[in-house]
DUF72 domain-containing protein (Tumebacillus amylolyticus), 275 residues
Amino acid sequence: MIRLGLTGWNGHRGLDGLQGYSAQFSIVEVDSSFYAMQPARNYEKWARNTPDDFGFVVKAYQGMTGHQRGDVPFASKREMFAAFLNSIQPVRDAGKLKMVLFQYPPWFDCTRPHVDVLRYTKEKMGDLPLALEFRHQSWFSPEMQERTLSFMKQEGWIHSIVDEPQVNPGSVPIVLQPTDPQLTLIRFHGRNREAWLEPSGENWRERRYLYRYNEEELTSWAQRIHELQQSTSEVCIIFNNNSGGDAVPNAKQLAEMLGVKYKGEPPGQISFFDL
């Protein structure tokens, strides 16, 4: 099975809020959860306003991945993780939590202390499906790649495969190896290398994801995705190149290449399959 979606549902041309979004895409990445711990009522509302077969990839709070600078608004790590788990419970109860994404920062390199962080995180998150995305090339260096993938398999991490500019050391290459037989995540960040090299200025985040994939690039990915399907049951694909309005057309273009058709039915609407 293949699911396609975007990072967030607001600010995309041609989409009308979450209900309009979920009529066209079968999955979404919740990135607001990275910047602030979302109240459980938000997840309850989002779960209620989406079709039964819709899925959420929830991005872990920045304090849980080491991104946050300054004071963390929690008395302890234990309290922080507990608050996050409590917040996402409604979407989990609804059966719509596809996975929680832990994306670590560019300075999170392949060292023993950072391996211990991953083990701690897995322990605190319990049996939830967790996706792991690195931003430091040391995890996939020639001497460490197989060991990293083996670790992810043993510890139960879903591999978040990325397409992003190759900036040493603050990015990772495309590594087409699933680590979970059920789920694999692919995230398209664009290939705006210049903006990744200089993360500065008022609008650097917007410039970083300003990129439109061309037909040749997407065709190459369609072939890769078909290969991935041989070793993982479900592939979830998220387009994060939102800055210039490119995510929607790119996602729809790839869906057409893959033969993926989705028409979500609003919650409560009777399907002709139920008649």
